[in-house]
Specification:
- The complex is a heterodimer of chains A (about 500) and B (about 375).
- Chain A has about 500 residues and is of the alpha/beta class.
- Chain A contains 20 helices and 15 strands.
- Chain A folds into two domains: about 15-150 and about 350-390, D-Maltodextrin-Binding Protein, domain 2 (3-Layer(aba) Sandwich), CATH 3.40.190.10; about 155-345 and about 425-435, Periplasmic binding protein-like II (D-Maltodextrin-Binding Protein, domain 2), CATH 3.40.190.
- In chain A, strands 2-1-3-14-6 form a five-stranded mixed sheet. Chain A has a four-stranded mixed sheet with strand order 8-9-7-10, sandwiched between helices.
- In chain A, helix 9 packs across helix 10.
- By secondary structure, chain B is mainly alpha-helical.
- Chain B folds into two domains: about 5-55, no CATH class; about 75-90 and about 150-380, MetI-like fold.
- Chain B starts with 6 loop residues before the first helix and ends with a helix.
- The chains are: A alpha/beta (about 500), B mainly alpha (about 375).
- The interface of A and B includes residues 78, 266, 446 and 454 of A.
Chain lengths: ~500, ~375
C-alpha cells in the first residue's frame, strides 16, 4: 500500500513539474518580471482592448509584471502614439496598432526590431502564423517589428436561409450583390413586421467606409497578382483613382448607399454589425467579426443562418495599357474563376503588437513576453472565436483546430463556411495588400475618406471625386518625395507570401 | 490730544517717503507680473509657436521630428490650392435671390459708412477701420451668398459662420424669453429656473449622443413618433441641411441656459421704480420692455452674446460625434476641419486652419464690440 502511495506521490510531483514547465514556456518565465510595468496603448474597446484587458491579470500572475492597458479612440491612435514616440515622451512601452502605419514608425527608428526575439521564442510558434501575416503585417523591409494578434480580410456575409428560400446563390460579382440587395430591400427579414434592408454597410465618415470602397474597387483595379498593386502605378507612383475602374467602383458604392438603412451614411461597422446579427440585413461586407458575432446567443438572432464568401469580383477589369475597362481574358485575369476576377482585400492588415524602442531592456522583455502570450495558440485560438475581441483567425492552427469554434457555439457547417471564406482569400495569388507607405493615414483616412463621404452625400460628382482623390494623393506624394514614396510602395508589394 | 513727532522719526520719514512713493508707483506692475508671466508662458508663447508651426511642415527623422519652414504654403493651400473647396466652399452662378440679398446687405453697409462719414464723430482712423471692416464683412457675405444661395456648397468657414449666426441669435431670443418668463410671479418658477439650466450641465459629447439617438428615425426613443408620421425612411443626418439643423438644435438646446441665466440675473437687478413709474405713466408691456428693460440689460446682452459668439466659432463636439462632419463635409466646423487634418499629423495645415479661425473670430469679435459699445455705454 505504501509503495502505491509513494508511486502516486511521485506521479503527482512529476505532473506538477511538467505543468509548471508548461506554464513557464507560455509566459517566458515565472515571476521573472516582478516589479516591471508595461504600458500598452491600443484603441478604445471593447474590440482589441477587451482580450488584452481580460488576459492581462493571468499574465501578471504568471510573471509578476504589471500590465496597464491604455485606450484611445481609433481615429486618434495613429497620431497619439506617433507623437508620443517622436517627441520622446515615451509614455507607452508597447502598442497594439495598425501595421499599415509601420511606414511612419519604422524608418525614424521608433519600433524595436523583434526578428531575433521571435526566432528564439518557441512558445510563440512563429511558423504557425499564416505566411501573409508573418511577411506583411509583421515585417518591414525584411525585419520583424510586430507580433500579429489578428487576421484581417474583408468578405461578404449573407443570410443563407433567405437566399436558399428564394433560390438565390451567394454573390459572385458586385452586380450580383446589388441585385440580391435590391431583391430583399424593404422586405421583413426577421419576422418583426418591419421592413428591413438588402445590404448594410459602414458608410460613415471618419470610420471604416474607405476600406469598403477599396474592397469593391479591388475587383476592377487589380487582376494580375498581388505585385500589380491596387493603389498606384508601380513605375510612376500615379494614383489609380481616376480611371474607368475607379468610376465603376464608385458607381457600385453609390448604388449600395441607397440599398440599405436610411441612416447608412451615418453608420460605422458597430451599427452595420448590430443590424446584421439582429436579422435586419440580407447582405453585409465586413471583416471576420460577423462570423463569431452571429453565433453569440446574447445578441444574435441569426445563428446558423449566416454564410460567408470571398469578396465578389468583376468580369471586367482595368487594362492598364489602354486605361479602359475590358472583359476578362486569360491574359488580363490569369487568376479568374469562371471569368470572374476576385481580388480579396487584406484591409487594415490585422491588429499587431509592437514595442517602443526607447523602453528599458527589462520592459521590452516583459512587453514582448506579453505580446507573445497573447498570440500563442493556447490564448489566441479561443480569442478568435469570441466576437467582441475583434480578433480574427491568423494562424494555421486556427483553421485546423475546430474545437474552439464548435465550443463557441458555431455549427460545423457554419465554421467551415466562415473559415473557408477566409482561407480562400488568404490563399488567393491576387490578394490586394493594404496601403503601407509613409503618411498612409493622410492618403486613406483624410483624402480618400473625405472624398468618398462627399461623393455619397452628393457634394461632388463622380468625376470630381476621382479628380479630387487623385490631386490630393499626388500633392501629398510630391510633398513627401515621389521617388521615396514609390520605393516604399514597391517595397511593400514585394513582400508577398 | 495732539501728536508730536520726534526729530528721529521725522528724519526717517524724509528719506522713506520718496522710496515709498516709488514703490507705490511700481506696486501695480509687481502685483500684475505673475499673471503676465503666466499668460506669456501659457498663452502668448504657444500662440507664437503655433504661428511658426502653421508656416512649417512636420516630418519624422531618426529618433525625433523635423519642422521644415514652408512659408505661407499651408495658407495658400487653404485659400487658393487643393483645400480651397473644403475651406471656402464652391460657388455657383448667382440666383435672383442671391443678388437681392447682396444688394440689400451691401446697401446697408454703404448707408452705415455714409452715415458715419457725415456724422459728428468722424476721424480718419475710425473711417479707415470701418472701410476695412466693411470690406472684410462684404467678402464674407459674398462667400456665404455664393455658396449657400446658389448651386454651390459651403466650406467649413461658411458652415461655422452659419452655426454662429443661427445658434447665437436663437439662443439669445430663447434665453431672453425664458428669463422674462421666469421673473414673472408664476407658480413653479424656482423649479423651472433649475430645469432650464440642466442642458448646460451636460457634457457636449453627451448632448451629441443624445441628439444622435433622437434624430435616428429607424430606432431610438422617438421611433414611435417618426413611425406615426411615416418618417422612418427619412434620415435627418444624411441630408446636408437636416444634419446641420440637428447640430444647431443640439447647440441651441445646450447653450440657451447660459444666456438665460446671465439675462435673468441682469433683469432681476433692475430697479422696480422705473418700471412702476412707466406703468403709472401709461406705458404698455412692450413699451416697458423696449424702452426700459432692454436698454438696462444691454451691457449684459453685449457681453453674453460676445462670449457665445467666441464659443460658437469653436464648436466641435456636436458635429464630430453626431455626424463626424458628414454627410460629406456638410456639418464640418473650422475646429473639426483643423482636428481632421491634425489626426493625419499634418500639424502645419491644422495650425493654418486654426489661425484662420483666430483671425475670423478676432475680426467678428472686434467689429461686434465696436458696433455695440457706444450703445451699451449710452444705456
Amino acid at each position: 500500500m505504501s509503495r502505491i502511495l509513494a508511486r502516486a506521490l511521485v506521479l503527482l510531483v512529476g505532473v506538477g513539474v511538467i505543468a509548471a514547465c508548461s506554464n513557464g514556456s507560455n509566459t517566458s518565465s515565472n515571476q521573472s518580471f516582478s516589479g516591471t510595468t508595461i504600458r500598452v496603448v491600443t484603441f478604445t474597446g471593447p474590440q482589441i482592448a477587451e482580450p488584452l484587458q481580460r488576459r492581462a491579470p493571468d499574465f501578471e500572475k504568471a510573471t509578476g509584471a504589471k500590465v496597464q492597458i491604455i485606450t484611445v479612440p481609433f481615429s486618434d491612435l495613429y497620431q497619439k502614439v506617433l507623437t508620443d514616440f517622436s517627441t520622446k515622451t515615451n509614455s507607452y512601452d508597447a502598442t497594439v496598432f495598425d501595421p499599415q502605419w509601420m511606414g511612419d514608425y519604422v524608418p525614424p527608428g521608433y519600433l524595436e526590431d523583434l526578428t531575433d526575439r521571435v526566432k528564439n521564442d518557441s512558445a510563440l510558434q512563429w511558423n504557425d502564423i499564416a505566411p501573409f501575416f508573418r511577411d506583411f503585417s509583421a515585417t518591414f523591409k525584411g525585419k520583424v517589428y510586430t507580433i500579429p494578434l489578428d487576421g484581417d480580410f474583408q468578405m461578404v456575409y449573407y443570410r443563407k436561409d433567405l437566399l436558399q428560400k428564394d433560390g438565390l446563390k451567394a454573390p459572385e460579382t458586385w452586380d450580383d450583390y446589388i441585385s440580391i440587395a435590391q431583391h430583399f430591400q424593404g422586405k421583413d427579414l426577421n419576422g418583426d413586421g418591419k421592413p428591413d434592408y438588402g445590404s448594410c454597410l459602414a458608410m460613415k465618415r471618419s470610420a471604416q467606409s474607405y476600406w469598403a470602397w477599396i474592397s469593391i474597387a479591388a475587383a476592377y483595379l487589380q487582376s494580375q497578382g498581388t505585385k500589380q498593386g491596387a493603389f498606384f502605378n508601380t513605375d510612376t507612383m500615379q494614383p489609380l483613382t481616376n480611371n474607368p475602374a475607379a468610376a465603376a467602383a464608385l458607381t457600385v458604392y453609390k448604388q449600395l448607399s441607397k440599398i440599405g438603412p436610411p441612416e447608412q451614411l451615418n453608420q460605422d461597422v458597430g451599427d452595420s454589425r448590430g443590424l446584421f446579427v439582429t436579422g435586419r440585413c440580407a447582405l453585409s461586407l465586413d471583416w471576420g467579426d460577423i462570423g463569431p458575432l452571429a453565433v453569440d446567443k446574447t445578441q444574435s438572432t441569426v445563428q446558423d443562418k449566416v454564410g460567408a464568401v470571398i469578396l465578389p469580383g468583376s468580369k471586367k477589369v482595368l487594362d492598364r495599357s489602354s486605361n479602359q475597362l475590358v472583359d476578362c481574358n486569360a491574359t488580363l485575369c490569369p487568376y479568374a474563376t469562371n471569368g470572374v476576377n476576385h481580388s480579396p482585400f487584406a484591409a487594415f492588415g490585422g491588429w499587431s503588437g509592437a514595442i517602443n524602442k526607447a523602453a528599458s531592456a527589462k520592459v521590452k522583455d516583459a512587453a514582448f513576453a506579453f505580446l507573445s502570450y497573447m498570440s500563442q495558440p493556447a490564448q489566441s485560438s479561443v480569442d478568435v472565436t469570441i466576437g467582441k475581441t475583434g480578433f480574427n483567425p491568423y494562424r494555421s492552427s486556427h483553421f485546423t483546430n475546430m474545437g474552439p469554434w464548435t465550443a463557441s457555439g458555431m455549427s460545423d457547417q457554419a465554421a467551415k463556411d466562415y473559415l473557408g471564406a477566409i482561407q480562400s482569400s488568404l490563399q488567393s495569388p491576387n490578394m490586394v495588400l493594404d496601403l503601407r507607405i509613409p503618411q498612409t493615414a493622410f492618403y486613406q483616412q483624410t483624402a480618400l475618406d473625405t472624398a468618398l463621404a462627399q461623393f455619397l452625400a452628393g457634394e461632388i460628382s463622380l468625376s470630381q471625386t476621382m479628380t479630387q482623390i487623385t490631386n490630393q494623393w499626388n500633392a501629398k506624394t510630391d510633398e513627401i518625395g515621389r521617388q521615396s514614396q514609390l520605393d516604399a510602395y514597391r517595397s511593400s508589394l514585394s513582400i508577398t507570401k | 490730544m495732539s501728536i508730536h513727532a520726534s526729530p528721529r522719526a521725522l528724519r526717517a520719514s524724509s528719506w522713506w517717503r520718496p522710496v515709498a512713493a516709488r514703490l507705490d508707483r511700481f506696486a501695480g506692475g509687481v502685483f500684475i507680473l505673475p499673471a503676465v508671466l503666466v499668460i506669456l508662458a501659457f498663452s502668448i508663447f504657444p500662440l507664437l509657436t503655433s504661428l511658426y508651426v502653421s508656416l512649417s511642415r512636420l516630418g519624422f527623422s531618426e529618433g525625433g521630428v523635423q519642422l521644415k519652414f514652408v512659408g505661407f504654403a499651408n495658407y495658400a493651400k487653404l485659400l487658393f490650392g487643393i483645400d480651397r473647396p473644403h475651406f471656402l466652399g464652391v460657388s455657383g452662378p448667382l440666383t435672383p435671390i442671391g443678388i437681392a440679398v447682396l444688394v440689400a446687405i451691401y446697401g446697408l453697409f454703404a448707408f452705415l459708412l455714409y452715415r458715419y462719414a457725415r456724422g459728428p464723430n468722424l476721424t480718419v482712423g475710425g473711417l479707415v477701420g470701418r472701410v476695412l471692416a466693411t470690406a472684410i464683412a462684404g467678402a464674407l457675405v459674398w462667400l456665404v451668398v455664393n455658396t449657400i444661395l446658389t448651386s454651390g456648397r459651403p466650406g467649413t468657414l461658411v458652415v461655422t459662420l452659419v452655426y454662429v449666426a443661427v445658434d447665437v441669435s436663437v439662443q439669445y431670443l430663447l434665453g431672453l424669453g425664458l428669463a422674462l418668463l421666469v421673473v414673472q410671479h408664476l407658480p413653479g418658477r424656482r423649479f423651472f429656473r433649475v430645469v432650464f439650466l440642466l442642458p448646460m450641465m451636460i457634457t457636449p459629447v453627451g448632448v451629441a449622443y443624445l441628439f444622435r439617438m433622437l434624430v435616428d428615425t429607424s430606432k431610438g426613443p422617438l421611433y414611435p413618433l417618426w413611425a406615426h408620421f411615416g418618417l422612418t425612411d427619412i434620415s435627418w443626418v444624411t441630408n446636408p441641411w437636416g444634419a446641420r439643423l440637428a447640430v444647431m438644435v443640439g447647440d441651441i438646446w445646450q447653450w440657451t441656459p447660459f444666456i438665460f441665466i446671465v439675462l435673468l440675473a441682469a433683469i432681476e437687478t433692475l430697479p422696480h421704480e422705473l418700471v412702476e413709474a412707466a406703468v403709472v405713466d401709461g406705458a404698455n408691456r412692450l413699451q416697458v420692455f423696449w424702452r426700459i428693460t432692454f436698454p438696462q440689460i444691454l451691457p449684459a446682452t453685449v457681453t453674453v452674446v460676445l462670449i457665445r459668439i467666441i464659443e460658437g466659432f469653436k464648436i466641435v463636439d456636436l458635429p464630430n460625434v453626431l455626424t463626424n462632419g458628414g454627410p460629406g463635409t456638410a456639418t464640418e466646423s473650422l475646429t473639426l476641419h483643423a482636428y481632421t487634418i491634425w489626426r493625419a499629423l499634418d500639424i502645419g495645415g491644422s495650425a493654418a486652419v486654426a489661425y484662420m479661425l483666430l483671425i475670423v473670430v478676432t475680426f467678428v469679435g472686434i467689429s461686434y464690440v465696436n458696433l455695440l459699445r457706444p450703445r451699451a455705454a449710452a444705456a
